[in-house]
């Protein structure tokens, strides 16, 4: 590779590039091929992280809020179904912005689509067409380095919705399991999407059918929590099972992982290996096979829509009740204190899905 800038040492240039906001990456990539190649290197992103310049982002599928439908924190019901968009929140700074959708999404995001983040890629999978309500197996990939979308290879098999989805950033893989088909038949099949190669590979089936299951990825394990079989229809199981990517097989089932009938939607994997979730008015953690209360939910987010864990922090986005504005709070698990995330009114719509990036 030639010099990045002819009059400066490469180390200084790299340090300057590492300080640029992720929003400036497309500009860097457009300067020259060498700069484009530089910001794609794993070493560049390690430099950003080690130097404290990496930015933490939550990308969400969020309902658009029209200002004329807001009254004192209450979102008035519209005669139309809500249009969903992609929003980005920097939880540590309170900065929000909207991410442009792919040209094929002119009517809005697919309803109930799943989001996954791996490396510098955002992957949007499945969901219902917002106009026809038909189930789609489509895959769209957004590259934060170039600010461009591409159409990925469709999910193989029959139409699938309400599946579990989680990503492995190290391997650039997105894992999918469970859900149900177009006849509302629960599925036990699983698969993985290689973002770089744009290819799908089938995984061995899970031990059980799992509709509306929750997926998390931690320490090389793809864990599937809860869900229910076709005959149970909404009565959630207590069990969980996990897929080991190193052995390419599913491990034993944890029979009593959840409380009976508990929806696993708010489960999130912690850096400490524990699983955190919201249960009633509490935040609880599963440590050493026992659930323990670690905090009380703020009243403003008692109706929880979305959760995420990173670096000892537990993010909760929710509302005080149906039709109320959605806001975010972060629980610091070192001191067990809450901090409210500043949320502009036009970013207070319901959150259907989300994923985390550290870019």
Automatic annotation (TrEMBL):
Q: Which SMART domains did the record assign? A: Kelch
Q: In this protein, which residues make up the domain named F-box?
A: 7-45
Identify the stretch annotated as signal peptide in this record: none
GO BP annotations listed? negative regulation of cytokinin-activated signaling pathway; regulation of phenylpropanoid metabolic process
Which Pfam families does the protein's record reference?
A: F-box (PF00646), Kelch_1 (PF01344)
Protein's UniProt name: F-box domain-containing protein
This chain's source organism reads: Carya illinoinensis
């Amino acid at each position: 590779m030639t010099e990045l800038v002819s009059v400066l040492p490469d180390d200084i240039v790299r340090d300057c590039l590492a300080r640029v906001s992720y929003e400036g990456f497309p500009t860097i990539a457009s300067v020259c091929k060498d700069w484009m190649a530089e910001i794609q290197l794993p070493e560049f992103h390690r430099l950003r992280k080690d130097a404290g310049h990496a930015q933490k982002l939550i990308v969400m599928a969020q309902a658009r809020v029209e200002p004329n439908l807001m009254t004192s924190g209450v979102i008035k019901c519209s005669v139309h179904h809500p249009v969903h968009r992609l929003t980005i929140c920097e939880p540590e700074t309170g900065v929000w912005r909207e991410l442009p959708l792919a040209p094929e999404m002119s009517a809005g995001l697919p309803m109930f689509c799943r989001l996954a983040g791996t490396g510098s890629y955002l992957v949007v999978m499945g969901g219902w067409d917002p106009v026809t309500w038909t189930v789609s197996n489509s895959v769209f990939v957004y590259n934060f380095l170039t600010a461009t979308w591409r159409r990925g290879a469709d999910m193989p098999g029959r139409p699938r919705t309400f599946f579990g989805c989680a990503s492995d950033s190290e391997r650039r893989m997105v894992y999918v399991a469970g859900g149900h088909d177009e006849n509302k038949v629960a599925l036990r099949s699983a698969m993985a999407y290689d973002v770089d190669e744009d290819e799908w590979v089938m995984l061995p089936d899970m031990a059980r059918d799992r509709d509306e299951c929750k997926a998390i990825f931690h320490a090389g394990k793809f864990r599937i929590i809860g869900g229910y079989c076709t005959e149970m229809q909404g009565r959630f199981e207590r069990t969980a099972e996990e897929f080991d990517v190193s052995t390419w097989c599913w491990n034993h089932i944890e029979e009593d992982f959840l409380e009976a009938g508990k929806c696993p939607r708010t489960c999130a994997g912690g850096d400490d290996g524990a699983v955190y979730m919201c249960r009633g008015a509490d935040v609880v953690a599963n440590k050493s096979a026992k659930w323990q209360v670690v905090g009380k939910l703020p009243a403003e987010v008692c109706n929880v829509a979305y959760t995420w864990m990173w670096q000892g922090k537990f993010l909760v986005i929710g509302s005080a009740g149906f039709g109320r504005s959605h806001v975010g709070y972060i629980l610091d698990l070192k001191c067990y204190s809450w901090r409210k995330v500043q949320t502009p009114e036009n970013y207070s719509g319901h959150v259907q899905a989300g994923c985390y990036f550290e870019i």
